[in-house]
Amino acid sequence: MKAPPFAYHDPRSVDELKGLLASLENVRILAGGQSLMPMLNMRYAMPDHVIDINRVAGLDDVRKVEGGLRIGAMTRQRTLERDPLVAAHAPILAEALHWVGHVQTRSRGTFGGSLCHLDPSSEQPCTAALYDATLHVAGPRGDRDVSIHDWVLGYMTPALEPDEALVAVTLHTWDGRYGYGFEEFARRHGDYAIVCTGALLATDASGTITRAALSIAGVDVRPVRLSEAEAMLVGKPADAATLAAAAEIARGIDCMSDAQISGDYRRRLAVAMVKRALTKAAERAKG
């Protein structure tokens, strides 16, 4: 099929983008197009207007800011995979992006676009949740910040009003001694994840865990933070028994089912993926 007819708009600044959002109705924003174009062609999306933000200035940079990394919404996934600031301050993001599609799709797909599309299996909301990300939203009625934990309103539904656009994301990165691990299970590399999980572990010189973050995607419409497991890990040695016990907490989460994968299967996968991610994070924390 072909896309339905629509009016095309090509703003060059955030102010011009805000003006279009204020004056137009039934709008979709085109970033990398890896999700929107198939949706248009299959008539899942039928907008009257498409606003292409590829040439809006200032939306595709990565900057170190106080307390973290600020990533422009239009930053390509492939760029983040190879960015030295990401490698230094949020290396799990680069590791997670390796699982996203293929090089060709990552070369077009954007970080902000994935966070707005909000596929439940997406690796990018999963890693954003690990870092308690703040999403920066712009619109004609004013700019605002939204926590990643308030961002998902429902299935593939972000906390964006029709006249708003995501312009940047701040990851609140960790300092000091810590390790990271990202694990995923999919039918084939490049397929959507059935379950993926990320882990961050900070340890002291004796190997005792001082801080932990665990996030799972693919099991619910939003990334799931295993806060009970995080609390249990703190103050414990980063040994195999501790990590296995923390992973077992994932067995108690509610998991969605679909025509191909049952919730019980996802739950069992979650336990295995969490254990692997924690083990990798603990090994890296030692180094």
Please tell me about this protein's structure.
This protein is of the alpha+beta class and 287 residues long. The chain folds into three domains: 7-50, Uridine Diphospho-n-acetylenolpyruvylglucosamine Reductase, domain 2; 62-171, Uridine Diphospho-n-acetylenolpyruvylglucosamine Reductase, domain 3, CATH 3.30.465; 178-286, Enolase-like, domain 1, CATH 3.30.390. Helix content is 34%, strand content 24%. It has twelve helices and 14 strands. It has helices at residues 14-23, 36-41, 77-82, 84-89, 91-97, 103-106, 111-117, 123-130, 148-151, 227-233, 240-248, 263-286, and strands at 7-9, 27-30, 49-52, 62-65, 68-72, 134-138, 144-147, 152-154, 157-158, 165-171, 178-185, 195-203, 209-217, 224-225. The strands form four sheets. It has a five-stranded antiparallel sheet. A four-stranded antiparallel sheet has the order 11-12-13-14. α2 (36-41) links the parallel β2 and β3. α5 packs antiparallel against α8 (123-130) and α10 (227-233) runs antiparallel to α11. The chain is globular and about 60 Å long. The mean pLDDT is 96.
